[in-house]
């Protein structure tokens, strides 16, 4: 594992200089799960929430979060995102909404944090829109599934293999 390089010689935080890195196409895929009660699940998937289209709003929130990631994470570089896709897979048997975000860019640094931010904010939006009917919603398993491009090459989450 390489050294952490977000500190200068005096031990203070710094943003890593990526100006010498080559510009490549980079992609990151992240996911998380939102566990809800059966009643809340039905409200979400049937579009019956009093606050409106829960998944539609969560999708827009996730895309907006990608564009604001550098404002939220102190040492994260602003990147020119070329694409964002957020997918919700409702699993009725487990009463869970699985969220997956794929983020792409062409640049000197990757978009892993952007993908992780997208699923996190989408999940928090689901919570926000459903908290009036359920307080014990669980958000879990936030993780990077896949990353391609750049000097460090490809990464796949161990349990997933190649997506």
Itemize the secondary structure elements and their pairings.
Blueprint: E1 24-35, H1 38-45, H2 54-72, E2 81-91, E3 96-107, H3 112-130, E4 138-148, E5 155-156
Antiparallel strand pairs: 1-3, 1-4, 2-3, 4-5
Shape: elongated
Question: Which class best fits the helix and strand makeup?
Answer: alpha+beta
Low-confidence regions: none
Tell me, rounded to a whole number, the average pLDDT: 92
Number of strands: 5
Radius of gyration: 17 Å
For the terminal residues, how far apart are their CA atoms? Answer: 24 Å
Largest sheet, spatial ordering of strands: 2-3-1-4-5
Strand content: 25-35%
Overview of the molecule:
The protein is α+β, with helices and mostly antiparallel strands and 163 residues long. The protein has a single domain (25-154), classed as Alpha-Beta Plaits (2-Layer Sandwich). Helices cover 28% and strands 29% of the residues. The chain is built from three helices and five strands. Helix 2 packs across helix 3. The longest helix has 19 residues, at 54-72.
């Amino acid at each position: 594992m390489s050294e952490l390089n977000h500190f200068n010689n005096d031990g203070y935080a710094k943003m890593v200089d990526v100006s010498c890195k080559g510009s490549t196409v980079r992609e990151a895929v992240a996911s998380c799960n939102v566990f809800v009660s059966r009643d809340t699940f039905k409200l979400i998937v049937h579009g019956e929430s009093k606050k409106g289209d829960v998944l539609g709003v969560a999708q827009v929130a996730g895309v907006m979060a990608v564009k604001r990631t550098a404002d939220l994470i102190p040492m994260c570089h602003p990147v020119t995102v070329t694409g964002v896709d957020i997918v919700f897979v409702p699993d009725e048997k487990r009463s869970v909404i699985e969220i997956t975000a794929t983020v792409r860019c062409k640049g000197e640094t990757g978009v892993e944090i952007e993908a992780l931010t997208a699923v996190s904010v989408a999940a928090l939006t689901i919570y926000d829109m459903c908290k009036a009917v359920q307080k014990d919603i669980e958000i879990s398993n936030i993780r990077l599934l896949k990353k391609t491009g750049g000097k460090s090459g490809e990464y796949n989450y161990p349990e997933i293999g190649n997506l």
